[in-house]
Amino acid sequence: MSLLVTGSIAVDSIKTPFGQRADCLGGSSIYFSMAASFFTPVRLVGVVGKDWPFDLRQVFAGRNVDLQGLEVREGSKTFRWQGSYAGDMNEAKTDKVELNVLAEAAPVIPDAFKDSSLVFLANTAPALQLQLLNQLNSPKLAVADTMNLWIDTARGDLLELLKRVDGLVLNEGEAKMLTGINSLAAAAKEIVKLGPQFVVVKKGEHGTLLLTNRQEYFMLPAYPTDRVMDPTGAGDSFAGGMMGYLAREDNYEPATLKKAIAYGTAVASLVIEDFSLDRWKSAAPKDIEQRFQRLKEMVQF
Amino acid sequence: MSLLVTGSIAVDSIKTPFGQRADCLGGSSIYFSMAASFFTPVRLVGVVGKDWPFDLRQVFAGRNVDLQGLEVREGSKTFRWQGSYAGDMNEAKTDKVELNVLAEAAPVIPDAFKDSSLVFLANTAPALQLQLLNQLNSPKLAVADTMNLWIDTARGDLLELLKRVDGLVLNEGEAKMLTGINSLAAAAKEIVKLGPQFVVVKKGEHGTLLLTNRQEYFMLPAYPTDRVMDPTGAGDSFAGGMMGYLAREDNYEPATLKKAIAYGTAVASLVIEDFSLDRWKSAAPKDIEQRFQRLKEMVQF
User: Fold this and answer.
1) Exposed, middle or buried, A198 (CB in 10 Å: 0-12/13-18/19+)?
2) Residue range A141-172, pLDDT digits in tens
3) A155: which of A97, A164, A170, B118 is 20 to 30 A away, CA to CA?
């Protein structure tokens, strides 16, 4: 099934205990698209400025990523993010951010993309996510990500969005912040009451929790890789793997959703083993399959 | 098989966002013994002062906990701990501690206990844990707990202890501190090189990681209870359930260890739903079995 992603495209500068990398490829829709492309064709919608230094056709060469939703905006500058990680690297510290084109009008969704069956609205202002969603005909599965900033400053829009999407992906602190509940299990219960059929809570190195509105829990630990070099994009890569698998299977039942979460976990565990998206250059579908199988074994008792 | 536990016996005063309780029953060996007693007979070794206000025969009435290793020491005072929890309650804040009898000589292990097959050395100074271990004939399975204080101040003794035990149970921060490695997967690998056949890392509400010296990983999320009232004793209860199940099965293979960790998780998820050990008063083996089965379902994909 056709899978659309809307999200940021960025030039990142990253520093971790294992090194640093200036002006590398980043952004939620880039990580998402690459991860999803291991499973299914992807339609990317995003906007960059005239200063955009990468050739995405080359980046996605050999992968089925449709770039007709990429807008290179005259007179605008690309979104830039500079961040660092220390200690257990569970949280990025933003050292500098230049929103640039992200602070302007959203890109337009091409007509050819409007029939997309699955859509992932990567993190941005919820009003913008609603605008993007409104441009689509009637996706079978719409999933959104969000962040603390919008929970804090645009709660009304976010609550509106939650009534319109089938799934919400967010991190643990955000789930607690959104609901004001400190128990994660209880916070997740509260979120599915706000509209979505399911919520996926990302807990970084602690894995993922799924709760459906039928009160079905699923919990999966992160894949225990011992060479985490750069966690940037892990969450978007997870979402890409998850949505990519769902699109391929064209089935959104809990059993499929659980497998999708495991595939998302497997594909995200690879990308954090090197800077930017570099680790995936040498990754094959069999590497993802192998980690999926190992995850399966590692939780069985 | 016979299971011995050595550890603290305490009078606790606890404050959580859900209430407070003064002078209630606590201590690692108490939580451990009660948890283990759902599975197997337990031999308890510990020491209290003359001011000890509880009748342990009554506390353990109807459970097979042998109290002949309980010493009530003349002229000494019982260990007292006062702590509080806030926010996500993942960490206790110690507001006041009176070591009292815990700072004196260790209790003696009764002759009748020296043939114990399984022993759990709850957290105390590693030199003391070694002394206790040396009093036993030759346990088939010795498992120890430890804490940041000893990693910091008694590393030599602790490394000595690690060569003598089959398993180590510790929390995530301690595993990273012991090895100086921030990746948990890598830290666990390092720990099994220090001697034990397996390490169990407790991650609080994020569950548990097992690594054996055959590089076999097992990861289990915590049981998602949405009414965490008092997390005190969760770790010792987990260890009690784990060791109790291993004693009952008399088998220490990875497959059994994994089930034991799931039983430990189930029994610990109950105790945190009320203050002190109160929740277990109304808990039956079938409640534990039910949570064990739900855990099994919740991780399957």
Assistant:
1) buried
2) 999 999 998 999 999 999 999 999 999 999 99
3) A97
What pTM value is reported for the model?
A: 0.89
HSE at residue B8, side-chain half, CA atoms within 13 A, is 27
The two three-digit tokens of residue B258, written as one number: 């994994």
3-state secondary structure of A49: strand
Q: B168 forms bridges with which residues in the sheet?
A: B144, B199
Q: Are B248 and B42 in contact (CB under 8 A)?
A: no
Q: Which residues of chain B have a CB within 8 Å of the CB of A182?
A: 17, 87-89
The ipTM value here is 0.84
Whole-number pLDDT of residue A40: 98
Closest residue in A to B257 (Cα) is A301
Q: Across the interface, do A207 and B221 touch by the CB < 8 Å criterion? A: yes
Integer Cα distance of A116 and A96 in angstroms: 35
B289 pLDDT more than 80: yes
| pLDDT single digits (tens) B63-80 | 999 999 999 999 999 999
Domain map of chain A by residue range? 3-299
**Both tokens assigned to B235:** 């770790």
Fold observed for domain A3-299: UDP-N-acetylmuramoyl-L-alanine:D-glutamate ligase (3.40.1190)
Count of CB atoms situated within 10 Å of the CB of B117: 18
Taking contacts as CB-CB distances below 8 angstroms, the residues of chain B near A207 are: 206, 219, 221
Q: How far apart are CA B165 and CA A46, in angstroms?
A: 56
Residue A300: count other Cβ atoms within 10 Å of its Cβ. Answer: 12
Nearest to B169 by CA among B81, B264, B267: B264
B243 vs B41: CA distance, rounded Å: 11
C-alpha A229/C-alpha A227 separation (Å) is 6
User: Any CB–CB contact under 8 A between A256 and chain B?
Assistant: no
